[in-house]
Amino acid sequence: MAYFIFPILNPLDAICNVKRNDAICVSNLKSARPVDKSILQERPDVKIFLPFRFHFYKPKDLFQENTYKNYLVAPGGDHVLSLVDEISYSAPPAPPLSQMHELSPDLFCNGDNRPANCAVDCRCTHMIDVPLNSIVEIVLVDEVQSPNLSHPFHLHGTPYNVIGIGRSPDKNIKKINLKHALDLDRKGLLHRQYNLPPFKDTLAVPNNGYVVLRLKADNPGYWLFHCHFIYHIVIGMNLILHIGTQGDLPPVPPNFPRCGDHLPTITPPFFPIH
Ligand SMILES: [Cu+2]
């Protein structure tokens, strides 16, 4: 019987910095259209390291009176929350795009501005501000490290170029983390290639590995950046990339719908509740 072996796209071992016949990483592909030279400059204007992981709750910490914390029960029975840069995203009560002036600044935080006394399950509307037209580099680092689980990160609003994908070249490192990724970066050991890096808007971060992405922040707004597994979205594996300022956005049209506009009239229950 004859059969063919085709190269695999996105091999699980994430060995992307060598030429191989059995697999192709997204970072080995070439963009069919030209890439803005400013994307390929050696130093980006903004560099953001984003480790992501799960927090494992002890049921006694999760199920407390008068609290209703979101969580996910993993296949093994663990109660987990997602953290990106040690923050679990919670959605704001109204859309920032049209009602930002009504939202308390206290709702928002990020790795550099964490709320005081934020606990191990730190929750806020995770938002990172970047200047309009800046060149942004994002390094996602998988600290989840569940075997065979690669989180697909999706950015709204603008595609990014995939500069590199990989795992630690240091064989003594069994688990990558932020500190080690920063170390690799300092030593120039994060895999980066600048020859027509492909455009993508979703990319799987290899298990126990990292990805290096670049984008030109030329589309102002509040853009969600999140793992695309729905059950990870609902436990906070998201953040807002805020490009530009309110002044870079067109004005909100008169009579634009507002959050809460379509609430039905609340009437007493039709049936008595016992
Ligand atoms: Cu995920």
UniProtKB/TrEMBL annotation:
<protein>
    <submittedName>
        <fullName>Uncharacterized protein</fullName>
    </submittedName>
</protein>
